[in-house]
User: Fold TRAP transporter permease from Tectimicrobiota bacterium.
Amino acid sequence: MVQDVEAQARYRELRGLPRFLERSFLISMTVLGILYALQVHSYLGKTLFHQQYLGLFLAFALGAIFLRSPAGLRAPRDRAPLYDFVLILLSQVVGFYVFLWYPRISEELGYATWDKWVLGTLALILVVEATRRLTGWVLVLLVGILVFYGRFSELFPGALYNVGSSWERLATYLYLDANGLLGTPLLIGATVVMVFILFGESLSSTGASRFLTDFALATMGRYRGGPAKVSIVSSSLFGTVSGSAVANVVADGIITIPMMKGAGFPAHVAGAIEAVASTGGQIMPPVMGAAAFIMADFLGIPYGQVALAALLPAVLYYFSLFAQVDLEAAKHDLRGLSSSQLPSLRKTILRGWVFFVPLFVLVYTLFVLNWDASRSGMVTVAIVLALSLFRPEGRACLKRFDRMLENTGRALLEITVLTAAAGIVIGVITVSGLGFTISYALTGVAGGSLFLLALLTAIVSLILGMGMPTTAVYLLLAVLVAPAFTNLQVPLIAAHLFIFYFGMLSMVTPPVCFATYAAASIARAPFMKTGYAAMRFAAVAYVVPFFFLFHPALLLRGNWVEVALAGLSSIVGSVALAIGLVGFLFRPLSAMRRILFLAASLTLLDPGMATDILGVLILLLLVAPELRWRRQRKQFPLAAEVEVGS
Assistant:
């Protein structure tokens, strides 16, 4: 499984009692999450605060991190030192304190007693250290700066001046308040995201990964550039069960990248295609990345509405990528795979048709019945496990059910520390009023210009994304920047999806692009060269968010005529963009024709009658001579080669 591959680089390899303790923490996280998602405590007549559940969940997660993740490069890799066991013990103290006594604590949150602020200080230190071990220093430094501001905001000049909080009050607030460490981000991570990670694990453990790859091979492998198209299809399908771009690259890339290189694609191009295809899994419904579930809670709408709004931009993303790959294959005359290299489509479907059932149920419950995402996820997990009983491979995997629970817990570790750290950030911003200050300042700098505000936000998102995962970037900007968009009358969902997109694009945008790094390593290609190629393949994702800020029809908002026209014109525009970027249609294109194709694509991606008509006219003028050349080449091959304008 993917998590096993990632674990080899990030975690210790333990044995004996430490290994048993680590497994216990990871399995306990998943079991606890399942019980809470099913609301078992309510059936037993017990009342449980969210904070009680999150305190216990965080205790298990921190215990697993300190046991398994080394403190530094010089820390031992085969055992946990004594100081890590001290951190594990402290983690259980701060977690079980909340779990056992929060009902009483909630009645006296206004009083910063010594036990609250001392344990609050410990909790902040433990979360920050766990975040450093798993994600590096960028988010840690950001948290540190914001906590310093929350305590000493009276030292800052101008608009940043505020009355600072005492440490006792600040530590208590960040530790125990619903807007702090145990707030909404961690709650979404420990419930909805946990359920869908479990869903992905249940699919993968019962053979879905192999089925998705075989299905992509059987349907796309025979066409020109077939291996690259297999990469796109399999990565987009696998994206429904994996919210991690890097995990997606590792899982699919070890199969698809060598296939693409073998078919004739340059190593850096093969790596770029896989990186872009895998990163798109975060924006592809029905199951998007973790940030999408958090977005739904921020917006106070069902997750299905978020996924529906993200559908057309995600289709454009993959449509443009697919078109570029097809044109690249035609440009370099790359053939598909032979029949002997392909699995039988009929046999593949007969072997794995059961995997379509839970996906259908998931889509139906989310988009038609509007169920809560956690409920939909648990139902689909149950269906996957039930259907697996009818397949020999599935029954064999179910015998390792504990392994599936452990893998789910391991996949949750990074999500847990990211959302906990985000809770600290949100808590400081809330208690200090910094969010209002920054939103006001951004609106002032933009001078009321929505485009300028969007451009500044895109740049900030890409910069922050150099050191933070998509979820962390989204959480931070959703609190700091999204309110500035609402001041300019932008629909909330458009503003949040804009931030989400550019946070996601940091995975493929140099100089720091984790998905591209992973793909380049597998392809044995230069990192930067692969990164620049990835930017080109993902180009539509840099453009479309600016358009849907101004045109909600691209988010399927509006009457059906507006939505249909916007969808049709944007799909044609994404193809025109691919032609301009690759520089090939039926033959190589001149620089001027490439520029004109790019201009046509921008007018078509911008919904509106005038822009659509202009874009179509430009395309007709460009495509007509190419079609004429192609027809002449078939009739008079030698004459076509010397036609003027070729």
